Amino acid sequence: MKKQTIWILAIVMAIAFLGLLCIQIFYMRNIVQIRYEQFAQGVRQSLVAVSQRLEQDEARHYLEDDVRQVEMSALMSQYIGDNPNRLGGIKYSFTTRTGLEADLTIKGDISEINNIQTSGGMGAHYRSMQDAYRNRYLYQRDMLDDVILNIISKSSNRPITDRADSTRVRRYLRTELDTLGLKVPFEFAVANHAGTIMYKSPNYQANTVDHDNMFIQALFPNDVNGTNNYLKVYFPTKNDYIFSSISFMVPAFAFTFILLIIFVYTIVVAFRQKKLTEMKNDFINNMTHEFKTPISSISLAAQMLNDQSVRKSPAMLQQISTVITDETKRLRFQVEKVLQMSMFDRQKATLRLEDVDANAAIFNIVNTFKLKVEKYGGTITANLDAMDAIVNVDEMHFTNVIFNLLDNAVKYRSEERPLSLTVTSRDLDDDNLEITIADNGIGIKRDDLKKIFEKFYRVSTGNRHDVKGFGLGLAYVKKMIDELGGTITVESEYNIGTKFIIILPLSKN
Q1: Could you tell me the pLDDT band of residue 421, with boundaries at 50, 70 and 90?
Q2: CA 60 to CA 168: how far, in whole Å?
Q3: Comparing C-alpha atoms, which of 356, 501, 476 is closest to residue 422?
Q4: Residue 88 has what DSSP assignment?
Q5: CB–CB of 507/392 below 8 Å?
Q6: Which end of the chain is least crowded, N or C, by CB within 10 Å?
């Protein structure tokens, strides 16, 4: 798959995920807003109902007082004067033809009432009852007006603690909120028109209340003196209650987030596989080139051996033999590099550990490598100052690590100055040995410095023919040092040089 195609797919999927997230956020925002509005509407409706119930309680209070007063007056005036036949009144209960039920009390002398019942017959009696009922209705209406005026004039002068005590207010609030399904805890207070708190619930904190979370309702708004009191209610767990109602959106967001992570991981893997494919293609091309050169040299030497004149010349035979030997070694070395690839696919390399004198091993490697360095007009110096250099390593892999680092220094030498290589060893502490390989080559750019230990990675200057390789050398070095329990770091400055620092634990045997 082309890199451009991957980018197009990534952009399309990113837009799709972004649109999905925007829709979910917009939908959740609308739901939250609707829940807030429903909550506020329900609370306001409950507060209005509480205010009305308090007004009804007050009206009932005054009506009951008036009824008690009327009953007492009736009992006291049951007998009027000294005439025992003079009664306080006779009560009739009847239903009119229109279906109206009514009670009528007629005061007077018993003889007068008897005359009404017997003189005029039922028709006259009925008309007399209608007239009496009408007069009684007008009288009772005037009495009700008097009661209402009494309520208006006296009620507003009562203390708010008597008109609406805290226990009753709390009970009414709880009842009305539960009726609307708002089963949430609340705190409340009653304040006068000046804002002074008359009384409050135990946990009501005026300084910490969010004003957006406060609901206010006027108590007894019809008072004539204009000194209204206000019921203030707020809900400490309002937000929790609102968001608990949309908890079903949490799994949707979680699944979307998981899909987003999988999508990002897939894109990263796709780019990594693309990069790995390109590296493997470069590796195959380089391998083909590296194999072709020694094979061509060996093939040419074999053809020369078929020439009779060459066979007769011992010097020519010696030269051809040397070429075949060197090219065979070169080919074997390239094959070993290819075989090193299998090591990266295993979690643990198979090592034959033994105690090795690092100073002696490095000294032998430097002596062997000196000819190659001098071939390019350079110098190599070994400063092996470590007093204790016994490390427990696989000698073959340890030798390959040092050789690969020296070989890289030769490959990436600078054309502007003679190559200078320095290999040092020193006692880092009682438990570790430090080995340093420094050169004055072309150095490594900062962007490449983070990736040089990756498999198949090669810096941009690797396109030159004399530095062709597979991109396995430093990856192999890093893996071997890790397997041996050590660490390797690199310090480099472009066009100045590079220094590799290896730290290995000393053998305790």
Answers
A1: very high
A2: 15
A3: 501
A4: E
A5: yes
A6: C
pLDDT tens, residue by residue, 29-39: 888 888 888 88
Between CA 337 and CA 346 the distance in angstroms is: 16
Q: Which residues pair with 435 in a beta bridge?
A: 425, 502
Q: Is the pLDDT of residue 479 over 50?
A: yes
Residue 476 contacts residue 359 (beta carbons within 8 Å):
no
Neighbours of 191 (CB within 10 A): 19
Per residue in 328-361, pLDDT (tens digit) is: 877 776 676 666 655 555 555 567 889 999 999 9
Select from 475, 479, 481 the least CA-distant residue to 503: 481
For every residue of 411-455, which 3-state class applies, written as one string?
HCCCCCCCCEEEEEEEECCCCEEEEEEEECCCCCCHHHHCCCCCC
Residues 287 and 334: beta-carbon distance below 8 Å: yes
Considering only CA atoms, which of 155, 222, 170, 134 is closest in space to residue 47? 170
Q: CB of 148 within 8 A of CB of 56?
A: no
Integer CA distances (angstroms), 371 to 43, 110, 377, 435, 447, in order: 94, 154, 10, 22, 33
pLDDT category of residue 117 using cuts at 50, 70 and 90: very low
Closest CA to 47 of 235, 198, 208, 211: 235
* Nearest C-alpha neighbor of 227 from the set 195, 256, 268, 203: 195
How many Å apart are CA 109 and CA 132, to the nearest integer? 15
pLDDT at 491 over 80: yes
Max CA distance (Å), the chain? 178
Pairing of strands 420-427, 379-384: parallel
What pTM does this model have? 0.44
Q: Calculate mean pLDDT across residues 220-229.
A: 70
To the nearest whole percent, how much of the chain has pLDDT over 90? Answer: 10
Tell which residue, 137, 128, 138, has the closest CA to residue 108.
128
Side chain identity, residue 210: D
Dist. CA 74–CA 184, nearest whole Å: 50
Tokens 């008036």 correspond to 66
Task: Tell me how far apart the alpha carbons of residues 427 and 385 are, in angstroms, rounded to a whole number.
Answer: 8
Amino acid letter, 426: R
